[in-house]
Amino acid sequence: MGWLDGKVALVSGAARGQGRSHAVRLAQEGADIIAFDICKDIPTAITEMGSEEQLAETADMVKALDRRVVTGNADVRNMAEVAAVVDAGVDTFGRLDVVVANAGIASFQPAHVMTEDVWDEVIDINLSGVWKTCRAAIPHMINAGNGGSIVITSSITGLKGFTWQAHYAAAKHGVVGLMRVLAMELAEHNIRVNTVHPTSVLTRMLDNDEIAKLFDPDKESPSLEDATPALRDLHLLPVPWVESRDISAAVAWLSSDEARYVTGITLPVDAGATQK
Ligand SMILES: NC(=O)c1ccc[n+]([C@@H]2O[C@H](COP(=O)([O-])OP(=O)(O)OC[C@H]3O[C@@H](n4cnc5c(N)ncnc54)[C@H](O)[C@@H]3O)[C@@H](O)[C@H]2O)c1
Q1: What's the gap in Å between 105 CA and the centre of ligand 1?
Q2: Ligand 1 lined by 155 (C-beta under 6 Å)
Q3: 3-state DSSP percent of the chain in helix, strand and coil, to 5
Q4: Which of the residues are catalytic?
Q5: Residues 29-81: tens digit of each pLDDT
Q6: Nearest CA to ligand 1 atom 42
Q7: Which residues lie closer than 8 Å to 224 by C-beta, 6 or more apart?
Q8: Model pTM score
Q9: Which of 209, 249, 210, 241 is nearest to 108 (CA)?
Q10: How far apart are CA 187 and CA 178, in angstroms?
Q11: Is residue 44 in contact with ligand 1, taking CB distance under 6 Å?
């Protein structure tokens, strides 16, 4: 018996990283999966994006668990693209129970010199893209009448500020407001809405040259290892980062009936970062 037997879950940004981990964990809990990703690069993001090959690998991992999967390429900024994937998934599976709005990008600049394109891309993806994902999914959930759960991936930067992340903090705080309103509006349909707030997670968004430079600016070509002491220093617990599966555990719980009366909360998975 899984927590999500017979249920269907939608995951954005599922080609790699946390999104892949969420898709696999929810499948382990018994859910069929609708997985999508942009699968093309975004100019201002600090890394390349997930690829079609990686999204296909995620799908193979779900199938290896004997669950069904529908995948699609869609940019969360594009309502029609997201709706097409969600509609295709619901056509195939006949229902939608769980939404994990996980897709996001990162970039770093001081606010007073930040360029407009850097600001706009983060707000468009990390804030408006979350709303568009919810907008495409919620009518299907309401129509099915089965209740459900929406989990939005925020960040510890959705609970406190970090320098050079004005746009990211604005978006990640912004999704908390969106979550709170959706929790109110959807409660009568028994649809719960919550945010998760990861600290640094060991994915491509953390393991890249930009982050290493940010946390060890004095070294010429720092690696993630060089940044480890500064990353460790963010936390109460003695770890520099957490793993995707740690966030997936919170997502799976919030998506399940184990959390049936949990709605409107901001759940940190942060090794104590927000208490430091
Ligand atoms: N890694 C961290 O340290 C960390 C910490 C806190 C919060 N987060 C958040 O976790 C979420 C997942 O990030 P991750 O760590 O797995 O990073 P990641 O870069 O490995 O994965 C992000 C995925 O989202 C996809 N994506 C980006 N823009 C998209 C768009 N417009 N439409 C569709 N898909 C898009 C990418 O292609 C990629 O596959 C993000 O919202 C991120 O902001 C990450």
Answers
A1: 5
A2: yes
A3: 45, 15, 40
A4: 168
A5: 999 999 999 999 999 999 999 999 999 999 999 999 999 999 999 999 999 99
A6: 104
A7: 206, 207, 211, 212
A8: 0.98
A9: 210
A10: 14
A11: no
